[in-house]
Amino acid sequence: MEKENNAGYAITDRLSVGNLEFVIGQSENAPAKFVTWRCNKSEKNYHWGHYSKDRLTALEDLCNRALDEIHHEKSLQKENDADEKPVRQAEKKSHEPER
Question: Is residue 99 scored above 50 in pLDDT?
Answer without folding.
Answer: no
